[in-house]
Design a protein that fits this description.
By secondary structure, the protein is mostly helical. It contains 10 helices and no strands. It folds into 2 domains: 121 residues, Multiheme cytochrome fold; 33 residues, no CATH class.
């Protein structure tokens, strides 16, 4: 279809008779800054502990477990929040995680883990998904705070030192050994000898 100078694209290409280019660029720049600021503010708001435990499914289940772990209370006073372990820091991976997390909103609306019984029935599936994600990223979020390079393995307790040396030699990642570090392990795990 020939473009005869009318239509949507032609209108966009035509210079404005009413506003100067500087005014249009200024409005575009300010609009972009406001959009980006609002977007980032919303993204950071969804990374807060208050947001994460805002639904009873998280508050009544995994949050209560987390409060009994070393990631919540320890001798140094450093606390890891939900987003520290479950949301990547860098922008690209963070956006991919936020998009993937949208299915959790669907689960909230549909009530798939709305009761303690439903949560327990899905716990193994939920944990397995998270462990797989962590394994695939080489425990990236764990390494924001913990790294083999920063560890003085010789100053660790004998068992920890031995296991970390094995982990280094076998190129393991944190989640290979530290399942259940912040939340209770699911019952009937395939590698669980009591299952």
């Amino acid at each position: 279809m020939p473009d005869n100078g009318s239509g949507f694209w032609a209108t966009l290409k035509r210079p404005s008779a009413k506003y100067s280019l500087l005014a249009l660029l200024s409005v575009g720049f300010v609009s972009g800054v406001l959009f980006w600021g609002g977007f980032n503010t919303a993204m950071e708001a969804t990374n807060t502990l208050e947001f994460c435990i805002g639904c009873h499914e998280m508050n009544d289940n995994v949050y209560q477990e987390y409060k009994t772990t070393i990631h919540y209370s320890n001798r140094t006073g450093v606390r890891a929040y939900c987003s520290d372990c479950h949301v990547p820091k860098d922008w690209g991976h963070k956006m991919m995680r936020k998009i993937a997390a949208s299915k959790e909103l669907y689960g909230k609306v549909m009530g798939t883990i709305a009761t303690p019984e439903k949560f327990e029935a899905k716990r193994l599936e939920l944990a397995t998904n998270e462990w797989s994600r962590m394994k695939a990223s080489d425990s990236r979020e764990c390494r924001n705070c913990h790294s083999f390079a920063a560890m003085d393995i010789e100053k660790q307790k004998a068992r920890a030192s031995k296991m970390h040396k094995i982990g280094l030699d076998e190129k393991q990642t944190c989640i290979d050994c530290h399942k259940g570090i912040a939340h209770r392990k699911p019952k009937n795990m395939p590698e669980d000898p009591d299952a």
